[in-house]
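Ligand: flavin mononucleotide. Inputs:
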Amino acid sequence: MLVRLLYVSQPVGPITTTITTLILEKSDSHNKKANITGVLCQGSGLWLQVLEGERSKVNLLYARIMADRNHQNIQLLSMEEITQRRFGQWSMALVYLSKDDPMVQMSHPEFDPYTASAKDAFLILDELIKTGTPIVNAS
Ligand SMILES: Cc1cc2nc3c(=O)[nH]c(=O)nc-3n(C[C@H](O)[C@H](O)[C@H](O)COP(=O)(O)O)c2cc1C
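Predicted complex:
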């Protein structure tokens, strides 16, 4: 059974390139093996991540991610059964979510995933993917 999970969290310190690179490296090797796909948005003091895959695999990965001390205030926004992946082409794509980033035309600077509905969060996510350039691990 396939599921799509969405959560939001706050990095504990500044997000450095090293942290992001490590996350993308882990995602590339682990998510490919577990057949998990998704998107990680980062910026404005937030991480917003979608994980798609077999329910048991997504549960295991989410538990691992929750235990990661690089972030806090992890809040599950949505976990739904799906018949089709929306982000099936990426083991984990990175999209910048920052109103200060000129690469991002943030049309909803007031967006706060902690209070938004999951539906709105997914709409914003779709917008970010369209306007920002998803960065994909080339390996
Ligand atoms: C915001 C965030 C997103 C992450 N996403 C993933 C992911 O999609 N896949 C993954 O394997 N690890 C991800 N990680 C890393 C895991 O939390 C964990 O550090 C890693 O999987 C441990 O791998 P290891 O047991 O091989 O050291 C993420 C970490 C953070 C902070």
